[in-house]
What we know:
The protein is an alpha/beta fold. The chain is built from 4 helices and 11 strands. The N and C termini lie close together (9 Å).
Amino acid sequence: xxxxxxxxxxxxxxxxxxxxxxxxxxxxxxxxxxxxxxxxxxxxxxxxxxxxxxxxxxxxxxxxxxxxxxxxxxxxxxxxxxxxxxxxxxxxxxxxxxxxxxxxxxxxxxxxxxxxxxxxxxxxxxxxxxxxxxxxxxxxxxxxxxxxxxxxxxxxxxxxxxxxxxxxxxxxxxxxxxxxxxxxxxxxxxxxxxxxxxxxxxxxxxxxxxxxx
Length: 213
């Protein structure tokens, strides 16, 4: 089956999104549904991955907190952030979870490059980073995209979150992904007037280079 795309115009409740993904994952595993990339936004909330530490939730009353089965620690989701949930069958893609995570990172980097942003990986930090030393001082790096995945019966779900133009102060209620030493940025924060439609086109244009189909 060909890879399907779904784009939600209105914010999607987090629990509803997880329920949808779990159902789709089961149907992909059973051969009853095609693989899917779902582009959406959530209302403002925090999610806690399987490695989340209680001390990293700095303001538990600020937004709803959802326990998530994805890997990683605390992250923020909200308006102005493009979430891409990626439901792929790794049985037909080599059953290599590390490669899948590498592919997600590569996908984000390729999409950001469409806007002349150099996204970078770091071996000791999850996510995609932007070197801001020239503007903000030596050693300054900010995260522009988070990655957290789960795999069930070799079908993936959860995925990536790219900061387009969220309220960056909302990240103050957590230690994003457990990292104290660096900040968070977005495309608009970097001076690029990019729209969700622009970002979606970049993601769709580059997905085939990484995932095929």
